[in-house]
Design brief:
mainly beta; Jelly Rolls; 5-stranded antiparallel sheet; 182 residues; 2 helices
Length: 182
């Protein structure tokens, strides 16, 4: 097989480089991950998700919350003081390349002991809409507006809370992330 490039290739004709967005390449490098978590908020009670980073910096690329009611707030806290409970409930983080055996260095827990929420880094308010024949609902997809890079071996919190107490609120938290590996 020859290593000579084709004469009619786009790279030769247009001086263009063959590239893909970095996040997509991380999936192909088997270091892109995703997680979807269904939750129920009772009245105005909060639910917390403890992100415990490991040996690599984590890039959070997509932070999406979908709820069946409006008036939901979400916070991302840094500098949190958190400890795993004696029986931690770990949430499975999936490799976006389902052929890969790589496991994310970050752990995600739902029942950690929170001593201090820490410093608010991001606040999101889901206002929602009401259409004829539909119930009030809300959605906030922040994938196109930000990327958050974690520190190694740190604790972070995501807090989700309904602002008004009119029954249970069902929702889904979706995270998309990749690891910054050497």
């Amino acid at each position: 097989m020859s290593s000579t490039p084709m004469n009619n290739s786009i790279q030769t004709r247009g001086f263009a480089r063959k590239t893909m967005e970095f996040e997509h390449s991380k999936i192909h490098d088997q270091r892109g991950y995703d997680v979807d978590i269904e939750f129920t908020l009772t009245g105005t009670a909060s639910t917390y998700y403890h992100l415990e980073t490991g040996q690599y910096n984590i890039h959070l690329k997509d932070f999406e919350i979908i709820t069946d009611k409006n008036e939901v707030k979400a916070w991302l806290f840094i500098d949190s003081v958190v400890a795993k409970s004696s029986s931690p409930l770990a949430v499975t983080i999936f490799n976006s390349d389902h052929n890969s055996a790589n496991i994310c260095s970050m752990n995600l827990y739902t029942n950690s002991v929170i001593t201090s929420e820490g410093t608010i880094r991001k606040v999101y308010y889901i206002a929602g809409t009401t259409d004829v024949g539909q119930t009030a609902n809300g959605s906030s997809n922040l994938a196109d507006t930000w990327e958050f890079i974690t520190k190694k071996n740190e604790d972070y919190l995501i807090k989700i809370q309904r602002i008004v107490a009119d029954g249970n609120t069902k929702g889904n938290l979706r995270l998309r992330l990749y690891e910054e590996t050497p």
